[in-house]
């Protein structure tokens, strides 16, 4: 078995300058890599054999690229920037504001930070530890949700914070949490009010929130294909095996540069989006897709899955479940299905398939079964609300998942008829 190391390159907010990506891909090609991947937190992932590791590290260091080697020491800052203009409309959160915020993070966060527009469901709002959600009614102010590390505890901050102060407060909160790990890190009794009292916001522009933020209902858009918006086009590219050819991406970068596109975007769906394609350049993009035989019309019930990073087992399980849903012609519009095979990993989903051992000895697990869990109101931005089915052997899992998807639609049908009724009761 090959000894593989995973190099993770962070692009803040999923915004990738094509020239920077071109240089990184060229360095990867020198180390005999043929493919790269994108991660749930919008990073670029390079799978490097041990024999090639020193060479590619030297190349990346010479380029001045910050990267993590087989760890999550500095997780990427996630943002809903890729959804801007194409999935998000009528918002004060512009492209320039995103970039100003991301540039203001002059340090490398050790906790996960999410920046989200409030009126979208394409990118997760609360999968970070420090989650900023733009105010729907007050320009330049943000709601804050703390999800304490290694827990499911979510605390809504009492104040809204000005755009210019997001980085400063994030740094202070991170330092307090990391300096008080016994209170706030991997502690099921972490107290948000206690953290709130410790943080000194006197130097920042904040004021009390008028009311708790109501999170937008979830509805996953179709994020693939060459699609028109306004007088331009956006292109979404998904790969079934999560692998993007380096040769293909090098040509993507050059086409972006040659046609004046200043960035491409990585998404939490392990895909890329290129925005701002002009009508007279549409043919060139189609030609590039033809050249590399890139399919951009996959079935919706395949695009609806979120799978852990770096998990071949989870990816194989996804293919197994997708085949069953396809064969049954099951409708999955709007639902997000997650697969989790590791403890305390974070997956954004309406319905979660969780693999777990019935017997555990140390770090080893035996006799694995599967549970199906559902988020509150099937909104992935909420926490797990109930277990739909537990202790399933693999041979019944596909049918149990199909029934859980049916319960998703039944829930909303019942809610329309009588909002006071929970469909699972």
Write the layout of secondary structure elements.
Elements: E1 4-9, E2 15-16, H1 18-30, E3 35-38, E4 44-49, H2 50-63, E5 67-69, E6 78-79, H3 95-104, E7 113-116, E8 130-134, E9 141-147, E10 154-156, E11 159-162, H4 166-179, H5 181-184, H6 192-198, E12 206-208, E13 225-229, E14 232-237, E15 244-245, H7 246-258, E16 264-266, E17 272-278, H8 282-291, H9 300-303, E18 305-307, H10 312-328, E19 337-340, E20 351-361, E21 364-375, E22 384-392, H11 394-417
Parallel strand pairs: 6-7, 7-8, 18-19, 19-20
Antiparallel strand pairs: 1-4, 1-5, 2-16, 3-4, 3-15, 8-9, 9-10, 9-11, 11-12, 13-14, 14-17, 16-17, 20-21, 21-22
Helix pairs in contact: 1-2, 1-7, 10-11
Provide tags for this entry:
425 residues; alpha+beta; Sulfite Reductase Hemoprotein, domain 2; Sulfite Reductase Hemoprotein, domain 1; seven-stranded mixed beta sheet; five-stranded antiparallel beta sheet; 11 helices; 31% helix; globular
